[in-house]
What does this fold into?
Amino acid sequence: MKVTVIGTGYVGLVTGACLADVGNDVLCIDVDPKKIERLNRGEIPIHEPGLDTIVARNAAAGRLKFSTSYADAVAYATLIFIAVGTPSDEDGSADLSHVLNCARTLGQKLERDALVVVKSTVPVGTNDQVRAALQGELNARGAKIKVSTASNPEFLKEGFAVEDFMRPDRIVVGVNDEASAQTLRALYAPFNRNRDRLLVMDVRSAEFTKYAANAMLAVRISFMNEMANMADRLGVDIEEVRHGIGSDPRIGPHFLYAGVGFGGSCFPKDLRALVHTAEGIEEPAAMLRSSIKVNERQRGILFEKIKEFFGGDIKGKTIALWGLAFKANTDDMREAPSLTLIDLLTRAGARVQAYDPVAADNAQQILKSTAGVAFASSARAACEGADVLAVITEWLEFRSPDFEWLADTLKRKALFDGRNLYDPDFVRSNGLQYFGVGRGRIHPKSMVLNSWS
Ligand SMILES: NC(=O)c1ccc[n+]([C@@H]2O[C@H](COP(=O)([O-])OP(=O)(O)OC[C@H]3O[C@@H](n4cnc5c(N)ncnc54)[C@H](O)[C@@H]3O)[C@@H](O)[C@H]2O)c1
It folds into this structure.
C-alpha cells in the first residue's frame, strides 16, 4: 500500500519505517526542514534502538522517502497518518493546534478521496474536530471529494518502539465506517499473522483507550512509589514486596517498579490532559489527581534522601549523576525526573557531574543556562571528585558497576539508587552506604543488636 505519515518524531518515524519494512511505500513529511534534511542524508534525529537499520534499509530500497511538502504528501497516498505532537497547553489540556493544522492543510490540498488516520494521542472528540476542520476546507473550495477519518492510537514504548510496532500486543482502530476498518485491517495484516490483534471499535472509545492505558500505568507507578515510601519507614524492602504481589496473576509482574517517579513525553502530559477532560465534564478524577500528586513528590525523593544524608546542607557538595534520559534506551529528556533532581540540587548549592550514554546532548541544550552542572564523558569520569553518586536512569551499563572502585572514589562513599538496581547488602559489603527507594529492610545486624539492647 502507499502511505503518507505526517510528523517524523518518535511515533511518526517508527510508524513510517516499520510500515515500509513490510513492503509498503511510505512518504514521511515534517514541517521541520532540518529534520527532513538529516533524514534525507541518512541520519536519524532520535535515538531508538534498531530504527537506523530499518530506515537505511527501506530508504535504500526506495520504499521510504522524506519531504517537507504537503503537496507531496497528498499526491503520494490516499492513506494518511497524522502523528504530530500533542504537548500540554498551559491549562494542562492537550494542545491540538498541530493536529488541527494538519487537518486544515490536508483539507486545502487533497484532490482525491482519502482516509486520514489520527495516530497522535488526542482527547475524546478530537477526531470530530479533525473531520470538521477538513470538511470546512473542502467546502470552502467546493472540493467534491470524500475524506474519512479514523483513530489509531499508538502504544509503542520509547526504547522498544521498533519491537512494539513490529510485534504489537494490540492494534486499536476506531472507525466511522466499514471501508476504513477494511483499509486498516489490510495495512496491519502483516503484524497480525499469528493471531488477530486488531481491535476495531468506535472512534471515541479508541481515543479514550489510549488515555486509559497511560493513566492505568501511571497510577500503577504512583501506587508502587507510595508503597515504597511507606516501606522505607516501616523497615520493609519494596523489592521483596514487588515479587510478592507481582506473582499474583490478577496483579502481574510488569510496571511495579518503585523509583524516582514517571516522566517522559506521555504519562505526565496525558494525565494532565485527562484531568482537564474530567474537569470539563465535572468528574472528580480523584485517582488521576492523586497519581500526579504522588509523582510530584516522588521526583524529589532522591533529593530528600541526599539532603538528609548531608544533615540538611548540601551547599558545595558534588553529586555524580548517572543517567539523564527519562528512562533507558532513549535520548528523550521530556519531563525527565533527572531535571527535577538537578534543579533541586543546584538551587540548594550543590554541583552536579552528570553522565548519560545518549541523552547528554539533549540534556545540555535544556540545561545550558543552569549553573553548577557539568557533563562527564563516562560514568567513571562523573564520579571523579564527587561526594556521592545518584543513579537516575536504568541504563544497562549502570547495572553492575565496580562498587569497590566507587567506594574508593566517592568522597562520602554513598550511593543513592533511584531505580533500585542494586542489592543493598552487596553494595554495603563493598564499603558504600546504600539508599534506594523503599529499601527500608532493617539490616539483620542491627536487628540482632536491637533485640539485645
Ligand atoms: N513518544 C512516545 O513514546 C509516544 C507513544 C505513543 C503515542 N505518542 C503520541 O504520538 C504523538 C507524537 O509524539 P512524538 O513523541 O512522536 O512527538 P515528537 O515531538 O517527537 O514529533 C512530532 C513531530 O511532528 C512534527 N510536526 C508538528 N506539526 C506538524 C505539522 N503541522 N505538519 C507536519 N509535521 C508537524 C514536528 O516537527 C515533530 O517532528 C503525540 O500525540 C504523542 O502523545 C507518543
Observations:
- The chain is about 45% helix and 15% strand.
- The first strand starts at residue 2 and ends at 6.
- The chain has a mean pLDDT of 96.
